[in-house]
Design a protein that fits this description.
The complex is a heterotrimer of chains A (310), B (297) and C (368). Chain A is mostly helical. Chain A contains 16 helices and no strands. Chain C folds into 2 domains: 235 residues, 3-Layer(aba) Sandwich (Rossmann fold); 119 residues, Beta Barrel (OB fold (Dihydrolipoamide Acetyltransferase, E2P)). Classes of the chains: A mainly alpha (310), B mainly alpha (297), C alpha+beta (368).
Chain lengths: 310, 297, 368
């Protein structure tokens, strides 16, 4: 510092000799601010992680250990039996083939529902954004307002409709219900995305002679993969986690995983096996959790968009 | 391109209309038709099957004199107030803490948000286990020496709704935090600089400048929380099944039980119409404030 | 001028700022005299706004010291530095009336009510915003908002004003109006002002001295005319002036009278004022001449250097016309009055005074 000073003017050198603060303001890693800030965040983070930890720990203990011990203590003897039992032999009513049945039901519900709802909503959003026709906006507004109507109001009329068509209680019926109730938010998502795409692109394609489906398949679809990923995340977690529609529109042998889980855990007969219950609970939460941890920031975008769905 | 010759109006833009058929059907048949149907049948004495036998407001009179419904409404109000206040406050505080240019921001955000990926059923069952008086928090604290310690919200009818609220907050606050964080990130950084130059302490900057600036974010968040409150159902089913007794019943469960178990459709329709009414009361003023001022065209 | 500053209002000594491995400001020194209007000018990303934020205390510096009014403020909070700041986005508190915007900081600081009222009245009078005091910022035009933002700095009753591109969000007409107002404000208040901009017209019109910055380093710190006429390097020469300075590549030939040579053209540099012994050695160099310093037609004959050429392109700009031609095989432009009618292919004669040119070393880009 001093030799640099000797290069500058005398007046500066004079002032520089006077001692005084220089360089960055000293900050202590353990300042009161940091202790408060990180302390609070860590305590809250532990609170949020605690249930997950307890779930995992409980599912790895045997019942005798659970009765004696403390729910927070790690398992003395790790056993995977509860997991096996939850998956393969836990009973709901008369069925004793575990959660596996519900898992496969949920897969059979989720996959077609996600595909169908996104297909309908993306094409619809594209029509609303680029091929507007008279009256389209009115229907769209009704659709968005409808998203706020409590499902309970519409449950029973849909039961009647499905019964009339003859698919009440089948997986097909539930897939249609999921597509209907996913429509408002997804259509909004796709419509807004397609509206934000440059109009010139669409015009250029039309000048080139491409039609409604040609533009959708060859131009819009390839350019909007991120929004499709967001929609998939939104729908997979939403449909997998659904309980109400599952319980209303399916029969015991076609119950989705959430409904079956609730029946296993909250069944009144028999001895409560908490370790099996927790293993079953984790198994049910696993699919959305994996989607969450893999998708990261896209999940945040998805829920920000889907938050309206509640 | 069908419009080169301009044929019949109906066939113009035909593909777009075909693509919109599911939307039109959903909007008209399910949303408008279904809602109107339910409201209409709420004035009938339908029991096992819907029947157009009008009885005026009888179902509503019965509804409002049923103690289970009154308990449901009371619970909904308590649960709603708790959800609203605490998820807003906690969500905002967490967002503000995460906005301090901290290290590991992504890690913290991931932890605070993961419960939101879980279903209400999973959430309810986990907290049922944690709050289990024989094995959960109460037992652990008693084992530590405080033998008279009592914490059994799910088995105590006077506080059971608070036990449900704990689980709901755990599940949903992360979302509110994310919305708030997005709102905070939307504040012009120059505002913070100006406040620092003006010598305004951080908490006053938040209170008097930033929070008023985030009004639209708060309103949107409020609507989201409110819509979620009215729908609360799975959580209660998983955690307490409405018990002990009827202490934790909620309107959505009342509707479901009367429609599908009690075989008293008219009651179910009346109760669901009341739910619709409460949503209208929340949504209409908001929509008016949000969109009423700036109508298109 | 530099050496005269015995008691600088703002003094920056060996200031460095690094963001991780990226060095944004490098051992920067700057003394600003009492009452001086300094403009920090440069392209975006040159560190000018960063420097201003460091002076304000809004960014933590990596090394060096900052003095304001002789007081070491390196570790001080912004509010204790005796500065007021005006931002590009105005940064008004949107939910408060203009009056509250002006008074909020003072109230928090516990200034007595009468004093606040007095200061607001004065600021409002100076900036002519009295009728706006009860309005909210959303009800103001861009120009009015920026006036209020200046007012917020004014009521702080400070010695140093910092402006961070205050006019960039305004349209061209308002910008020139407010520019004049800021100049008048400075004349009336006689405060020290440090003003960041990328607009060379603002810099030229407002500044007592301009600091041209690039890559976190001050390239040249001088009076506007000096910067314009005697740029220290090719960057400064090219950054100021519109249309930009013409650059011709060529060779410098040393001798009693050094000569610039480029493909059939040789410009004797007897009248050119070399920096130090820049003219002694022969080397590749770049010859710079501003379009407005090239004469044409009869006026060209009076110039020490003349050349014959043909018109390539004519660009009418309204107030004048820009003509593109070739000199030494390289494209150059010059300005003529708008009423001169020139066509493509016309044979013309151009001339200039080499004393007004700038010569740069082709290797270092520095002025010779």
């Amino acid at each position: 510092m001093v030799d640099v000073a000797s290069l500058s003017t005398g007046a500066q050198a004079l002032r520089r000799d006077a001692a005084g603060p220089s360089g960055p303001k000293p900050r202590h890693a353990l300042s009161r601010r940091n202790i408060f800030l990180y302390g609070t965040l860590i305590v809250v983070a532990l609170y949020y992680l605690l249930p997950l930890y307890v779930m995992i720990v409980t599912s790895l203990k045997g019942m005798p250990e659970i009765r004696l011990g403390n729910i927070f203590s790690p398992p003395v003897e790790i056993t995977f039996e509860p997991w096996v039992k939850a998956w393969a032999t836990a009973c709901t009513g008369l069925n004793c083939d575990g959660l596996s049945r519900g898992f496969w039901n949920s897969v059979r519900i989720t996959v077609p529902s996600v595909i169908l709802s996104i297909a309908i909503a993306s094409v619809n959003g594209y029509a609303l954004a680029n091929w507007r026709f008279k009256g389209a906006d009115t229907f769209f507004i009704i659709l968005i307002v409808g998203a706020f109507i409590p499902y309970q109001v519409m449950i029973y009329p849909i039961v009647i409709i499905l019964r009339e068509i003859g698919i009440y209680g089948s997986l097909t019926g539930l897939v249609i219900v999921h597509s209907i109730f996913g429509m408002p938010i997804l259509t909004l998502l796709f419509r807004n995305y397609f509206t934000s795409m440059p109009e010139e692109l669409f015009r250029a394609a039309r000048v080139d002679g491409a039609g409604f489906w040609g533009i959708y398949l060859r131009i819009m679809l390839p350019m909007s993969l991120p929004i499709f990923v967001v929609a998939i995340i939104l729908q997979v977690t939403g449909i997998w986690n659904d309980f109400l529609f599952g319980v209303v529109y399916t029969r015991p042998d076609t119950y989705p995983m959430t409904v079956q889980l609730n029946n296993i855990v909250n069944s009144v007969q028999g001895v409560k096996e908490y370790n099996v219950n927790m293993a079953a609970t984790i198994l049910t939460g696993l699919v959305p959790l994996i989607v969450y941890f893999i998708s990261g920031k896209l999940f945040v975008r998805g829920i920000a968009a889907g938050a309206v769905k509640g | 391109m069908s419009n080169s010759q301009r044929p019949n109006q109906i066939f113009r833009n035909l593909n777009a209309k075909i693509a919109s058929i599911p939307m039109i059907l959903t909007a008209l048949v399910v949303f408008v038709g279904g809602t109107a149907w339910t409201v209409l049948y709420s004035f009938t004495n339908s029991k096992l099957l819907p029947r157009l036998n009008f009885v005026g407001l009888d179902q509503y009179h019965r509804l409002w004199s049923t103690s289970r419904w009154l308990v449901s409404i009371e619970n909904l109000l308590i649960y709603g107030a708790i959800s609203l206040v605490f998820s807003l406050v906690i969500g905002f505080v967490l967002a503000a803490l995460l906005d301090q240019k901290i290290r590991f921001e992504d890690t913290f955000r991931t932890i605070f948000l993961y419960p939101f990926a879980l279903s209400f059923i999973v959430t309810g069952l986990v907290w049922q286990w944690l709050l289990n008086p024989d094995f959960g928090v109460q037992r652990v604290v008693r084992d530590l020496g405080w033998t008279s310690f009592s914490f059994d919200p799910l088995y105590n009818s006077s506080i059971v709704i608070y036990g449900i609220s704990i689980a709901a907050l755990w599940q949903g606050t992360g979302l509110i935090m994310c919305l708030m964080l997005a709102g905070l990130r939307g504040i012009d950084e120059d505002i913070w600089k100006a406040a620092r130059v003006d010598g305004i302490p951080m908490w006053k900057t938040y209170l008097f400048i930033v929070i008023p600036m985030m009004r639209p974010v708060f309103i949107t968040t409020l609507v989201i929380i409110a819509a979620g409150i009215v729908k609360v159902y799975d959580l209660v089913v998983a955690q307490t099944s409405g018990g002990p007794g009827i202490a934790s019943e909620v309107p959505a469960k009342y509707v479901y039980d009367y429609m599908f178990f009690a075989q008293n459709l008219g009651q179910g329709f009346a109760a669901s119409t009341m739910m619709l009414l409460s949503v209208v009361i929340v949504i209409v003023p908001w929509a008016y404030l949000e969109f009423g001022g700036r109508k298109r065209g | 001028m530099e050496a005269d500053i015995a008691n600088p209002s703002v003094s920056i000594q060996d200031l460095s700022l690094n963001f991780g491995a990226v060095s944004v400001l490098q051992t920067l020194n700057l003394d600003v005299a009492e009452g001086e209007f300094i403009v920090l000018l440069g392209p975006s990303g040159c560190g000018k706004s960063t420097l201003l934020n460091c002076i304000a205390g809004l960014l933590d510096i990596s090394d060096g010291r900052i003095f304001i009014k002789g007081k070491n403020v390196t570790w001080e909070e912004p509010k204790d530095r005796g500065i007021g700041m005006v931002f590009q986005s105005y940064a008004l508190y949107p939910q408060m009336t203009v009056e509250r915007n002006l008074s909020f900081g003072l109230r928090v600081a516990g200034v007595p009510k009468e004093e606040i009222a007095k200061r607001i009245a004065r600021a409002a009078e100076i900036l002519q915003i009295e009728p706006l005091l009860q309005r909210k910022p959303s009800a103001l035009s861009g120009g009015q908002r920026q006036r209020v933002a200046i007012g917020r700095a004014l009521v702080r009753d400070v010695d140093v004003f910092l402006f961070d591109e205050p006019l960039s969000n305004l349209d061209a007409k308002l910008r020139s109006e407010l520019r004049v107002e800021i100049k008048l404000l400075h004349r009336r208040l006689q405060n020290t002002m440090i003003y960041v901009t990328h607009d060379q017209i603002e810099a030229m019109t407002l500044a007592d001295r301009i600091a041209v910055m690039r890559g976190g380093v001050i390239q040249q710190l001088d009076a506007p005319q000096t910067i314009y006429n005697r740029p220290v390097n090719r960057f400064v020469a090219g950054f100021l002036g519109s249309p930009a300075m013409n650059f011709l590549k060529g060779e410098l030939e040393a001798g009693a009278v050094p000569v610039f040579k480029a493909d059939g053209v040789s410009v004797p540099l007897g009248r050119y004022q070399f920096d130090g012994d820049g003219g002694r050695a022969a080397k590749p160099c770049i010859f710079g001449i501003r379009p407005e310093h090239i004469a044409f037609g009869d006026a060209a004959g009076a110039m020490p250097f003349t050349a014959e050429s043909t018109v390539e392109i004519v660009d009418p700009m309204g107030s004048d016309t820009l003509v593109w031609t070739k000199l030494g095989g390289q494209i150059i432009s010059f300005r003529v009055e708008a009423d001169k009618t020139l066509r493509n292919g016309d044979a013309i004669r151009i001339g200039f005074d080499p004393a007004r040119a700038s010569l740069f070393d082709a290797q270092t880009d520095n002025r010779l």
